């Protein structure tokens, strides 16, 4: 095994290399890649609603715990988002819309850089400096690690989960650090309070604490905050009289639109077949060698995702660090074999250098794409079509009366689209409209409506249901106001790697804004 104990300077160079690599892959072209995900709009809407004092359940649905939106709203409060952006540029231009995504995506990117360093320390502590470096490089450069660039609860969850694990592996029989164990339990509780599947890492934490300390009371000290913090979610629902809604939300979240675990695994394979194979092979290798740490790092999560009825590809973001550590463990073993065969130490670098170069090239091709310009243009145009809730003081009385008439319940327009188009007009620019998701089974609330026809909307029209019939009737009564093309897709082949992974989400090559008035 290569000895990295060559002084503080070389340790700093290792860390600096990882920070540069991870910063490039996670902070480059934040507004252009990846494609805007509908759930990003959900979580940003919740965070800004919380920031504005509208409570923890602005959308009246118990689909996820609260810490993610509290974390984002806390950061937004500190940096003055989004008002600081509007003070600089209050226009309704596409650039302003892009900036509204830039800030939260920048936060996700910074968290990814932190994740890289946490993975380094965890694998380094458990398996040595070589495995630590390889694991961190894999997370920094491999295509699979672009998923945490999305503004999702899983992206927020990772650093809290990894910090908890790092604090655990740093405990040993000689240093029974009560405070460290308690803090680890706090971070584990916050990770679960962000999204429930983090609880699958509790067997790993419990085993390490008991193995390292040999004392049951230290395990209890860790479990208390790890359990009590996420318990605040059902407790809050019970206190507010919404326990039945909380139970219904949990059931819906795990059984909606059946999508099995194997389907999400296939998505993972499409995005990054190299890391996927390395990670699974590393897990099998660890199981053969009876490496309990590696098995518990991945095994319980796999069992949990297999048992529930609905698993999306981004739900498995939780597994990316585990796959990187398992892959790093395997690559280190292969490197040692090559070193013995070639009789030169450079053989240790051959496998990781090849994999890292491949990953960096593939990731670079993806993160350089512009997938969101048509979305920003659509939001910008939509802003010009919607009335403000409060008339400007500079308008004359006749204009104010006209706006008041439009804002009345009878004349307020509806916007029929995915929920990803609502939060900026409603919460940032204070526009007055009814938000009607095309997933909604309710009737459109007003006679005047705008339809944003993208790939998601068109796929809804193809379904045979009463809902699709309503949408089809509404669509046929509209005319086109504007169309925006995503020209960047014309230059790539979506059936070739690595671009085939873009097909995981509906790609709207054309977005058509339509209205019936």
- Major β-sheet strand ordering: 2-1-3-5-4
**Tally of separate helices:** 21
Helicity range of the residues?
55-70%
Total number of beta strands: 5
Name the average pLDDT.
88
Counting copies of identical and different chains, the oligomeric state is: single chain
Largest sheet: 5 strands, mixed
What is the overall silhouette? globular
Strand content: 5-15%
Low-pLDDT residue spans: none
Radius of gyration: 25 Å
Alpha-carbon distance between the termini?
A: 72 Å
Main structural class: mainly alpha
What is the element string, with H for helices and E for strands?
Answer: HHHHHHHHHHHHHHHHHHEHEEHHEE
What would you say this structure looks like, in words?
It is a single chain. With 517 residues, this protein is mainly alpha-helical. The protein is built from 21 helices and five strands. A five-stranded mixed β-sheet has the order 2-1-3-5-4, with helices on both faces. Helix 19 links the parallel strand 1 (414-417) and strand 2.
Layout of SSEs?
Layout: H1 8-27, H2 38-51, H3 67-79, H4 83-88, H5 94-127, H6 129-141, H7 153-169, H8 178-194, H9 202-213, H10 216-239, H11 243-255, H12 261-271, H13 273-288, H14 292-307, H15 320-342, H16 350-367, H17 373-385, H18 397-407, E1 414-417, H19 423-428, E2 434-437, E3 449-453, H20 455-461, H21 466-476, E4 479-485, E5 510-515
Parallel strand pairs: 1-2, 1-3
Antiparallel strand pairs: 3-5, 4-5
């Amino acid at each position: 095994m290569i000895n990295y104990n060559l002084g503080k300077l070389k340790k700093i160079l290792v860390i600096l290399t990882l920070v540069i690599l991870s910063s490039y892959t996670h902070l480059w072209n934040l507004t252009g890649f990846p494609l805007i995900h509908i759930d990003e709009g959900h979580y940003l809407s919740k965070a800004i609603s919380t920031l504005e004092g509208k409570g923890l359940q602005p959308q009246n649905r118990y689909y996820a715990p609260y810490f993610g939106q509290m974390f984002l709203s806390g950061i937004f409060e500190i940096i003055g988002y989004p008002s600081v952006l509007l003070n600089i540029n209050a226009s309704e231009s596409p650039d302003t819309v892009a900036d509204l995504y830039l800030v939260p995506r920048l936060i996700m990117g910074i968290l990814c850089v932190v994740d890289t360093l946490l993975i380094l320390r965890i694998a380094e502590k458990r398996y040595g400096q070589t495995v630590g470096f390889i694991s961190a490089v894999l997370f920094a450069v491999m295509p699979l690690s672009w998923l945490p660039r999305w503004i999702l609860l899983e992206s927020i969850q990772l650093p809290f989960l990894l910090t908890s694990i790092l604090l655990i592996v740093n405990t040993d029989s000689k240093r029974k650090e009560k405070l460290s164990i308690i803090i680890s339990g706090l971070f584990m509780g916050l990770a679960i309070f962000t999204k429930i599947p983090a609880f699958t890492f509790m067997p790993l934490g419990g085993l390490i604490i008991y193995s390292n300390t040999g004392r049951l009371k230290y395990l209890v000290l860790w479990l208390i905050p790890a359990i009590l913090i996420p318990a605040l979610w059902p407790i809050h629902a019970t206190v507010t009289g919404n326990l039945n809604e909380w139970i219904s939300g949990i059931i819906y979240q795990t059984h909606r639109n059946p999508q099995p675990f194997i389907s999400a695994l296939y998505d993972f394979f499409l995005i990054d077949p190299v890391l996927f194979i390395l990670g699974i092979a590393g897990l099998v290798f660890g199981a053969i060698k009876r490496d309990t740490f590696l098995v518990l790092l991945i095994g319980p999560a796999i069992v949990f995702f297999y048992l529930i009825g609905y698993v999306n590809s981004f739900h498995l973001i939780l597994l990316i660090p585990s796959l990187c550590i398992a892959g790093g463990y395997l690559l280190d073993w292969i490197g040692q074999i090559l070193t013995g065969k070639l009789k030169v130490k450079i053989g240790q670098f051959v496998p990781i250098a090849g994999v890292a170069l491949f990953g960096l090239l593939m990731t670079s091709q993806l993160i350089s794409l512009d997938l969101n310009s048509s979305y920003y243009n659509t939001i910008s145009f939509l802003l010009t079509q919607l009335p403000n809730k409060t008339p400007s003081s500079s308008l004359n009385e006749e204009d104010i009366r006209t706006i008041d008439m439009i804002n009345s319940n009878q004349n307020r327009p509806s916007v029929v689209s995915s929920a990803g188009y609502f939060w900026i007009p409603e919460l940032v620019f204070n526009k007055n409209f009814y938000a009607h998701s095309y997933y909604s089974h309710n009737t459109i609330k007003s006679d005047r409506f705008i339809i944003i026809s993208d790939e998601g909307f068109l796929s809804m029209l193809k379904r045979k249901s009463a809902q699709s019939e309503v949408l089809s009737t509404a669509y046929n009564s509209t005319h086109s106001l504007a169309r925006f093309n995503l020209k960047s897709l014309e230059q790539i082949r979506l059936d070739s790697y690595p671009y085939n992974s873009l097909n995981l989400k509906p790609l709207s090559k054309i977005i058509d804004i339509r209205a019936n008035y």
